[in-house]
Amino acid sequence: YFHDGVRYIDYVIAYEQGDEGKSEDGKVEELRRKYEENLKEKGLQIEHEPKEKTCFVKVHVPWEILLRNAERMKMKMPLKEEKVEEQKKGSSGMCSCFGSIYRKMVSPCLLNRLNDDSRLVPPDYYTSEFVRDKMDFFDIKDEKTFFTNSQRSRIAYRLMSETRFGTKRIDIGINNLIGEGGYLAAFPLHEVNSESKIPANANLRRLLYWEWARWGRWYKFQPLDLIREYLGDKIALYFAFMGYYTKWLWSATIVGLAVMIYGIVTVCLYNHSQEVCDETYPTYAGNLTMCPLCDEDCSYWKLKTSCLASRITYVFDNEATIFFAVFMSMWATMFLEFWKRRQFQLSYEWDLVDYDEERDLIRPEYEAQVTRERLNPITGDMEPYLSTKDKYTRTCFSLVTVFFWILVIIAAVFAIIVYRLAISAIFAVSIDLSSLGAIGTFATPAMLTTITASLLSLIVYEKVALWLTELELPRTQTEFEDRFTFKMFCFQFVNFYSYLFYIAFFKSTITGSPGNYNYLFGEWRWEECDAGGCMYELSIQLIIIMFGKQLWNNIVELVLPWAQTKYRQWKSQKVSAEMKDNEYTRWEQDYDLNQFKEMDLFYEYLEMVIQFGFVTLFVAAFPLAPVLALINNIIEIRLDANKFICELRRPLAHKCSDIGAWYYLLEFIGNLAVVTNAFTIAITSEAIPKLVYYYVYSLEIYPESTYVGYVNNSMSYFNTSDFDLRSVPNNRDPFGEGNVTVCRYSLYPGYLSPPNANPPYAFTTQYWHNIAGKLAFIIVVEHVVFLLKRLLDYLIPDRPRKLRDKIRREHFLVQNMMFKAE
Length: 822
What we know:
Shape: elongated
Keywords: Cell membrane, Glycoprotein, Membrane, Transmembrane, Transmembrane helix
Distance between the termini: 38 Å
Membrane topology: Multi-pass membrane protein
Number of helices: 25
Strand content: 5-15%
Largest sheet: 4 strands, antiparallel
Strand order of the largest sheet: 2-3-1-6
Main location: membrane
Transmembrane segments: 248-272, 320-339, 396-419, 439-461, 484-505, 608-631
Radius of gyration: 32 Å
InterPro entries: Anoct_dimer, Anoctamin, Anoctamin_TM
Helix content: 55-70%
């Protein structure tokens, strides 16, 4: 409160006291003086809190100003009449039985504990847009409690954003004044968060900390209604999405673990990896001599040296992989469809259906920079107007710039590939590239990809995307966020996924074959996939990138902000201790917390969308991706909760009814996942060639139709005398058995005729059968999955019928109540 103990502090503004005699400080002080005078003219009350260095201005919005602006902002406020819920019909059957067991045993529900306290869960009222002429019909019991703290701060911020501090067009709003150096920060105050256990009269912040933000509550449900009341709809919707996404990850985790367990159990039984490990030829192929994996320094090697890699590959790439890829494509569709229903349900419960008070609010930056005006046909007011030509010019320039930076990202990925080629050639002298010891040659590029992507995103891409978005001059904050989201997603998508696309779809196709290798810049031979196959390498890359990215994000979000906050608090407390009569006030404590930036929530969503891509796009290569995502999200929810309650200044409680453009990006990734998984199984995996061999060719050798002999069948012969001079290995007798005359290779396209055939090294019939099988698989899987996705989209309505009827009923009752008020 103010010093009188009556007026509530709705907003706090901080500034630093400058040195006297400096002309620049005098100019800044004049801007502050004009701004504060204009705030008083709007009816706001302010109180100064002078300090030794950092001073504070406390802002209070009087009752009459609250009423006037609540009507102007069309805030939905509670009416006197409570909702009368229809008595729920008793449900029966197995579904209700299992649901009851789940609620009572599996989910120790936090909400049930909170519902026992009537202070925390007030009666549910009908709401309507506030009108001062009909105040008697609104539930106004007390002037101090009618408006919540978040509503008061939102009104204060709206008035502060519309207040001028100079004569220029851009001299308007608290944010611009902070940018001019007039103030350091502006924020609403947190409620007191004592360190003791919950007292009888615990406030929202303390209750949220004790029952939600602590690590010991990781298994509890999230109190979304309380989060919304304290932090606002926008942040509450983010936590609702996180919780719902994490809940759905459980099913993907269970199926993914089942696929992994199946691979681990069956790897010990007969399969093609057993042929690689056993040397008994011709039934087994472990003793086959393989062609060198690089020029000169690499020598011939035995296939059995890749035994461990082939077994690991089988764990990820087996018969269950096809099922899991199709399952995850359908899982993504089901998740998004049911999230739309859940989102609509929350919008109804929070009075946000078809309502967003800030959606059509013009950005101050747009008003300041657009000088041309025209009549708004809806409101009848003169508003700034950006011509169509100017708008298209700015948009085209922005798109060209985005495309240029995407090329820069691709160039960075290409540099990592070149590094890999160079490092492989260097290590070839001391490391057997066919053994597991070569893991460093393909693990380091994944680490470099993660580090490069994180640093470029932090240093370059955010600034470029922000500059381009501001250049486009979006009219509203919603348009600004959507455009910025699109640019950052393009950058991050290429950043994190481009190297994975290279391994999955291009690496095996550009290598060439013995006697006809391809070279980069005529110097470095394009590398082959690891001895375990491209699927093995893709799995390792996914593990490293997912784990590394999540570890980096948690360090950035937890360790650095915590250290910064503790340092500022220690510094302020030291100053307060030196000045014996100087109290460490509430506004000083909040000022020492880290600032909540508008883009903080954006990066939380971006992290989840990128993770959703890892879980769905290449899940055929790594079934444990949902497991890593689930563990990360359980930690992430409590990490973010603790951050918002304890480490950050209280954010402004923004209103919004959905997650915006993020849903469409998730839908794009879900559709792309169908294509990438189909191509991963057809191109990167050996699933299709194995099936073709099983049903077409093994019958000729083994009447019982098995996979026996697949490895030997899939490898082509090459006469070592046909090597180019640069490809001839220095050590032609690595096994002490005489010079090697014939070596084997199993590379795309593979299945070539032997050297003594006419013509030699030509595509065999089996090669074309494999191509036909792969094309048929891609076409059938894509069409079937997309058809099922469209069917699910049709069968699962975005808005449940019962809820739609309930909304219409409430609208009817509210209209009747307002008609009686007339």
